């Protein structure tokens, strides 16, 4: 390792020069990213899936007690063969071919694997039971499930659920922030595109402040749809085309399946069967064929 000289003060207060090691460029360029270790839960929670016939006063969707067998025949991905698995308390392996040395009474053991009101909690210090539950065909995430078997339970991932809840909340906050700060020239066409009412039930035009409240509510309840369409070119085009149709600049009603100019009745485009005329003309405007149409329409609208 190379060395360099630097100045410092010794114990007597004198300025002295000392040799300090200098890292080579190769060493300096190395960055070590230490990934945070995922905290292992103290217990794992399994939940029944599917529908169950329940005749219970608690009215839960699951039976109060539901026991599963401690044996199964699975396809083992590691060996590429079918193998018998069996959970036995106090035994480290779940594979029957590795349990031959056990006493007959031990092999006939039937541990109580019981779901109570639809849930089974397994402590982390029971690795054999955890392995059996996740290897069995009864597990809904089991790969290469054997034919004729059905999923009985799933493993709840609380960390993933919480992460999704955080992401959903952040998405909602982003959408609402956009809705609150959107200038009117963006909000108005976007709100119309989203179907927000600008006229009340009495036929009176609503104030834009009232419209923005509904705009915010939409962003809160439908953040994905809001963000995806916000400031989208198609939204702005849809607004211009829709207004042009209302003002009679475009005629979409005289001849079925045809869009015409309102004043000259000249042909603009053929509207496919079953396609909304406004939606079609908006999408048409963004194509090379519809470029001249939209340029003319925009000039007429200004």
Properties at a glance:
3 domains; 302 residues; 3-stranded antiparallel beta sheet; elongated; 10 helices; alpha+beta; 35% helix; 19% strand
The secondary-structure element order is EEHEEEEHEEHEHHHHHEEEHH
What is the strand tally?
Answer: 12
Based on secondary structure, the structural category is alpha+beta
Helix content: 25-40%
Uncertain runs = none
Global geometry: elongated
Q: Walk across the major sheet and give the strand order.
A: 8-3-9
Query: Can you give the mean pLDDT?
Result: 86
Number of domains: 3
Tell me the major beta sheet.
Answer: 3 strands, antiparallel
Termini Cα gap: 72 Å
- Work out the strand percent: 15-25%
Radius of gyration: 34 Å
Output the number of helix runs.
10
Task: Indicate the topology.
Blueprint: E1 2-9, E2 15-22, H1 25-28, E3 43-48, E4 65-67, E5 71-76, E6 81-86, H2 104-107, E7 114-116, E8 119-123, H3 127-135, E9 153-155, H4 158-181, H5 184-193, H6 208-221, H7 223-229, H8 233-246, E10 250-251, E11 258-261, E12 267-270, H9 277-285, H10 291-301
Antiparallel strand pairs: 1-2, 3-8, 3-9, 4-7, 5-6, 10-11, 11-12
What does this structure look like?
There is one protein chain. The protein has helices at 25-28, 104-107, 127-135, 158-181, 184-193, 208-221, 223-229, 233-246, 277-285, 291-301, and strands spanning 2-9, 15-22, 43-48, 65-67, 71-76, 81-86, 114-116, 119-123, 153-155, 250-251, 258-261, 267-270. The chain is α+β, with helices and mostly antiparallel strands. The chain has three domains: 43-156, no CATH class; 161-231, no CATH class; 235-301. The strands form five sheets. Strands 8-3-9 form a three-stranded antiparallel beta sheet, covered by helices on one side. Helix 4 runs antiparallel to helix 6 (208-221), helix 5 (184-193) packs across helix 8 and helix 8 (233-246) crosses helix 10. It is elongated. The N and C termini lie far apart (72 Å). The model has no long low-confidence stretch (mean pLDDT 86).
């Amino acid at each position: 390792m190379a060395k360099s000289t630097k100045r410092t003060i010794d114990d007597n207060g004198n300025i002295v020069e000392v040799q300090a090691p200098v890292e080579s460029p190769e060493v300096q360029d190395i960055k070590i990213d230490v990934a945070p270790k995922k905290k292992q839960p103290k217990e794992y929670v399994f939940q029944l899936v599917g529908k169950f016939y329940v005749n219970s006063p608690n009215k839960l969707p699951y039976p109060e007690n539901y026991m599963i067998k401690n044996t199964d025949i699975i396809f083992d991905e590691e060996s590429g063969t079918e193998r018998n698995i069996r959970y036995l308390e106090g035994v480290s392996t779940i594979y029957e071919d590795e349990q031959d040395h056990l006493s007959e009474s031990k092999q006939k053991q039937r541990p109580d694997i019981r779901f109570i009101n639809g849930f089974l909690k397994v402590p982390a210090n029971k690795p054999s039971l955890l392995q059996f539950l996740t290897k069995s065909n009864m597990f809904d995430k089991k790969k290469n499930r054997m034919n004729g078997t059905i999923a009985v339970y799933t493993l709840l991932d609380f960390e993933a659920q919480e992460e999704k809840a955080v992401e959903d909340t952040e998405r909602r906050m982003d959408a609402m922030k956009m809705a609150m700060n959107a200038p009117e020239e963006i909000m108005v066409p976007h709100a119309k595109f989203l179907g927000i009412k600008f006229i009340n039930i009495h036929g009176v035009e609503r104030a834009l402040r009232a419209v923005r409240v509904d705009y915010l509510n939409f962003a809160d309840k439908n953040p994905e749809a809001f963000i995806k369409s916000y400031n989208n070119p198609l939204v702005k085009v849809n607004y211009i085309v829709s207004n042009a149709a209302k003002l009679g600049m475009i005629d979409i009603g005289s001849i079925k399946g045809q869009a015409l100019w309102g004043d000259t009745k000249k042909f603009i485009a053929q509207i496919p069967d079953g396609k909304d005329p406004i939606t079609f003309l908006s999408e048409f405007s963004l194509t090379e064929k519809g470029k001249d149409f939209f340029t003319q329409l925009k000039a007429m609208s200004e």
